[in-house]
Amino acid sequence: MYGYGRREFQLMLLRRMADYQPERVARAVAEVGATQGQYRAAHNRWQSMLRATRAPRGLALYAAVLGPPEDREAIEFGDVTVTACRWRLAALWPDLRWQALVGEADVVLEAALVRPDAVPELPPVPELRPWTCVIGDVTRRWPDARQIDPDVPTRWLVEVDQSEVTWRLWFVHGLLQLVAPESGG
């Protein structure tokens, strides 16, 4: 989309992260050289594109903003095969990729930040820090982790039992934002 590219897309991702990490987001906005007005405008424009009747839909919207996917991979879920399309978002998250899981008719079923390479060594859950891991890192490290859809777009919850405590890990766009014991989430 004219005037809306990877920089603006990353600013849009930051908007919901600010609900949990406002100081970190403020630093990230400055790091990409954006003003608060540009940051807000990027979020508002994305929301407008999602609702506009004449804007591209599904995979076409991501391709219009981010360019063609840099990587495609077929992934099987039971009887269904989806395509994982990935893009590099180097400015803020150089080791991560934006991934859209695409089904029939290029409908985007799910989209989030993912790690394309090996999972980093993760400390015990209470020592995890915001923006250090994605959902896939946690579920590979702790296979018994429970994923919970909090019914809020862009957010995801993972619960991990460790040291007789259930820890709640909140993610926005797939990136860790907050770790708290179950009673304190």
Describe the structure.
The protein is α+β, with helices and mostly antiparallel strands. The protein has three domains: 1-55, no CATH class; 70-114, no CATH class; 125-184. The protein is 29% helix and 30% strand. It is built from five helices and eight strands; from the N terminus they run H-H-H-H-E-E-E-E-H-E-E-E-E. It has helices at 6-17, 22-31, 36-51, 59-66, 135-141, and strands spanning 71-77, 80-88, 97-102, 108-114, 146-148, 155-162, 165-172, 175-181. The strands form two sheets. It has a four-stranded antiparallel β-sheet. Strand 2 (80-88) and strand 3 form a beta hairpin.
Oligomer: single chain
Distance between the termini: 38 Å
Total number of strands:
8
Work out the helix count: 5
Overall body shape:
globular
Strand percentage lies at 25-35%
Find the structural class using helix and strand composition. alpha+beta
- What average pLDDT do the residues reach? 93
Largest sheet: 4 strands, antiparallel
Arrangement of strands in the largest sheet: 1-2-3-4
Measured on Cα atoms, how large is the radius of gyration? 17 Å
SSE pattern, N- to C-terminal: HHHHEEEEHEEEE
| Domain count | 3
Low-confidence stretches: none
Helical proportion, percent range? 25-40%
